[in-house]
Task: structure prediction
Amino acid sequence: MKLTFYGAAGTVTGSMHHLESDGKRYLLDCGMYQGRRKDAEMQNRTFPFHPASIDAVLISHAHIDHTGILPLLVKGGFSGPIYATPATADLCSWMLRDCAHIMESDAAFVSKRSHHHVQPLFTMADAEKTLPLFHPVDYHQPFQLNSSLTFESYDAGHILGSSCILLREAKNGDQVSLIFSGDVGRPGLPIIRDPEPLPPADYLIMESTYGDRLHEQEGSLTDNLADVVNRTVSRGGRVIVPSFAVGRTQQIVLLLHELANHKRIPSLPIFVDSPLAVNVTKVFRDHPECYGESVRQFLHNGEDPFGFSRLQYVREAADSKKLNSLEGPFIVISPSGMCEVGRVLHHLRHNIEDPRSTVLITGYQAENTLGRKLIEGMKEVRIFGEPAEVKAEIASLQALSGHADRDELLTWMKTITPGLKRVFLVHGEPEQATGLVSSIRKTYGIEAVMPHRCQSYELQARVNRV
Result:
C-alpha cells in the first residue's frame, strides 16, 4: 500500500488521505479546509489529483472538515461509492445540502455587498449528485474493497456514527494493516458511546488536535455552563453559542435540558437556529443504536432528550432574523462551530459589540478562523468583511470537546501498539502534534511522524510465507 497525505497534514481541518492498493485509489475522508479565507478558497477548489481517478471514498464521520468537498469531488468527475456508517450517511444527506445552501447564500450576500460576483465552491445541484453515491456499511461488518483489500469500522465515540477504520491488505502471502482513527472521542461524552478498542495493526493514522494538552475536569462542565448563562442573564444579555450542528448542538441541548430540570438556570427562551440542526436532531432520534447511557435514561423516563418546553428549533430564515429584535435575555445555538459561515455570523454581528452579551465557544477553533480570533482576545474582528469591536464577553467550554486529549489518545491506541511500526499524526497544528510525538515515543517506544502535505509513504507488508 502507498499512503499520501493531502489534507489535515500540519493543520486541523481538511481531512484527506490518499491510499493506493492493488492498482486502485481510495480517499480516506474528503474534508473542507477551514482557515484564512483566501488560503481555504485556494486549497478547497483544487485537488492534487484528478477526481475521476479515485475508485472509492471511505468517510470516518460527517463533520464538514471530513466530508465537505465531496460535492466538489463529484463535480470534478468522481462517480464511485462513498462508504460510511448508516448514521454518517444519514447525517451527510442533510449536511452536504446545508453546506451547499450556505455557500450559495453567502456568495450571494457578499456579491451584493461587494458588487463583485462571487462563485460558490459548489451548488445544491452538486450536493444532490453526491448523495446517491453513499453506501452505508454497519460497524464490525468487514467489506471487500478489491481482491486484496478489506475495511471494517469501529465506533470512534466522537459524534453520532463516527468511526475508526481498519484496512487490511493481503496478497501473495503478505499482509499489511492500517488504522485510520478519524477523530477519536472521549469516554463519558453525552449522547454517544465511548470509543471502542481496536486490534493491533502495522500502521496508524491518528488525529492530534489536543495532542499536547489535557482537558479540564468533566465535573466542572455543567457548573461552568450554568455560570455563563446566569451571569449573562444578570446583565440582561444574550448567550450566543457558535456550535457544530452535528454532535455539539445536541450535547448543549441535553445539558441545558438537565440544568432546566434541576432549576439551575432561569426560565428564558432557548433557540436552536439552524435548519441543519433541526434535520440532524431528527437523525439523532432515528439512530438510538448509537446512544450512550445518559440518553437512554431520558428515554427510560419518557422524555425527549432533544426537546423541552423552553426550547424552540428555528428553521426559516425569516424567523432567524426576528431573534435579533427580541427583547430580554435568551440563548441562541447556531452553526458554524468555528464562526466561519452560516446564521451565527448574523447573531455575532448583532451582539458582538454588546458588553451585556456572551459568546460561548464550545470546541476547538482552527487557526485563522473567527472563533480562534475571539478566543485569542482580539479586540476587533471582521464579520462579513466589516470591522466589529469585541465588547461582548468571550467564554469557553472546552470540556465539551469531542476530541480525546493527550492521555486519552495514548490510552486509546494501547490495544493497537503490539507490532505497530509507525504512527502518522494528522489533524493537529505542529505544536500539538510535536508534543504527541514525544509522548508516543516515551510511552510506547514507537516511531511517530508528522507528514507534510503531498508526502507519500510505502507501507511495508508483514511476510507470512512458511
Summary: The chain has 14 helices and 23 strands. The domain at 2-213+402-463 is CATH 3.60.15.10 (Metallo-beta-lactamase; Chain A).
